[in-house]
Amino acid sequence: QPELTAQLGPLATTTFSPPPSAPVSEEEQRIDADPPPRVWRVVAPSHTPPAWVVGKLVHEALRRWTFPDAANIESRLRPTAVASGLTDEAIIREALREARRLLERFRAHPLFAEMDAASERHHEIPYVLGGDIGVMDVLYRLPSGWAIADFKTDRVRDEAEMHDVIRNEGYESQIKRYADAAAAQLGERPRTLLVFLNVGGEVRAITPESDDPC
After folding, report:
1. Which of 9, 117, 123, 183 has the most CB atoms around its CB within 10 Å?
2. N-term to C-term CA, the chain
3. Which residue(s) pair with 86 in the sheet?
4. For residues 159 and 56, what is the distance between their CA atoms, to the nearest angstrom?
5. CA distance 166 to 148
6. Using CA atoms, how far apart are residues 16 and 182, in angstroms rounded to an integer?
């Protein structure tokens, strides 16, 4: 993935980079890491992988824009599973299978085609805005303008529970901060999308400002 500064040219400044006084490693830039990235061993009952590990695998695949039809997807994602602390082979395989299911589901959604056709697409962009430091999942450009997508792998039963999760986890204010940072840099406010990949077995994407489903 080329550097963002090379992609955006004069629009790109240090706004999208961590400050020198607070370096952030590539692993530490993974958003929403819970528990923290450096977990050396995960013990999961009944060969059920922790949901946060599956989320890390999905985010890693999306960062690479790699999907289940890629011949080497498991070899690319396996190091992330191991680095997350999985040691049992059965749990690793199940984590990879669950990640593949979520990725296949997203690829079948119209939003995938929109993002895949974008004239520019930048993954996991670190930013600094005032005292706020974060990482955007995806910033992409369409003929209608810029958009930010933030992927969520929370397992929720239905849209009502999804809205509860958005409220309880502060996801709306989180993506608003992303939009503030991008607008300060790009000179226009991007459209924002919260993309839930596991709502009753389906994908749900909403624009928080309008609450419209995609």
Report:
1. 123
2. 27
3. 42
4. 23
5. 16
6. 8
pTM: 0.78
Residue 117 is encoded by which pair of tokens?
Answer: 């056709």
Distance set, CA 80 to CA 1, 11, 61, 75, 106 (Å): 18, 32, 10, 10, 20
In sequence order, what are the residues at sequence separation of 6 or more whose Cβ sits closer than 8 angstroms to the Cβ of residue 58?
99, 102, 103, 151, 153, 197
Cα–Cα distances in angstroms (integers) from residue 50 to residues 39, 60, 81, 174, in the given order: 12, 16, 11, 23
pLDDT tens column, 84-134: 999 899 999 999 999 999 999 999 999 999 999 999 999 999 998 888 899
CB distance 94 to 88 below 8 Å:
no
Residue type, 49: P
**Residue matched to tokens 């706020």:** 132
DSSP state string for 14-80: GGGS--TTS---TTTT-TT-SS-S----B--GGG---HHHHHHHHHHHHHHT--TTSTTHHHHHHHH
**Distance (Å, whole) CA 181 – CA 127:** 7
